Amino acid sequence: MLRIYIFILVLCCAGHIYGYLLQDMQRNIVKIITSTSHGNFGDWHDRQFCVKSAYAFGLQIKVEQPVGRGDDTALNGVKLHCASRDETIHGSISSGVGQFGSWNSPTFCPSGQFMYKFRLKVESPQGTFGDDTTANDIVFECSRIDSRGCNLTTVFAEGGAQWGDWGDWSDACPVNSAFCGIQTRVEAPTSGSDDGFK
After folding, report:
1. Which residues form a coiled coil (predicted)?
2. Domain of 47, in residue numbers
3. N or C: lower Cβ tally within 10 Å for the chain?
4. CB distance 137 to 160 below 8 Å
5. In what order do the strands lie in the sheet with 165-166?
């Protein structure tokens, strides 16, 4: 059996650029947010960032659907779609991605909103002979960068897997910031079982 665990870390960038040099671009990282539900396996992959002055406004996940008697991995990848505040689209980013499953259709925040917090749906360990999938689905909350008081929108990924329970919401990016980067921790295939994101 194969193991693939994925743990998610996102980075909040301020609405103004004046800061740290990361991947040949300047981003002002104001907060690093990790998922509240995760495992302890795998290696961190490189951080990936939206281009300068762009933030995450869309979400796409790679999921292996149930395989019956085989080993299920569920969530195998998360892709963030990036746009600037004037709604110019700037491609997508992802960190480590598992080998199983396929990419589902993306979902997006409403016009003028960007992602600022998230939560994972995670299956608890199933014991020695159980089929652990770990992360199965993810949901983000969107808001305007300059306020969090009203017009919040929850964006569910399309095609998440069925197992597990929703964890708590992550911390939120501060006002005047939004998600701008992602880093995942993925356990490479082993001779054990196939497990997806941590």
Report:
1. none
2. 6-186
3. N
4. yes
5. 153-156, 135-143, 114-122, 165-166
Q: pLDDT tens digit string along 52-62?
A: 889 999 999 88
> What is the overall mean pLDDT for the chain?
77
Strands 114-122 and 165-166: antiparallel
In 149-171, which positions are buried (b, 16+ CB within 10 angstroms) versus exposed (e)? eeeeeebebebbbebbeebeebb
Q: Is residue 65 part of a domain?
A: yes
Q: Which residue has the tokens 């020695």?
A: 128
**Rounded distance between C-alpha atoms, residue 18 and residue 27, angstroms:** 7
CA distance 107 to 97: 19
69 within some domain? yes
Asked if residue 157 lies in contact with residue 61, where contact means CB atoms within 8 angstroms, the answer is yes
Tell me whether strands 43-44 and 29-34 are parallel, antiparallel or unpaired.
unpaired
Residue 38 included in any domain: yes
Number of domains in the chain: 1
Is residue 159 within 8 A of residue 61, CB to CB? The reply is yes
pLDDT by residue (tens digit) across 162-179?
Answer: 677 888 888 999 988 999
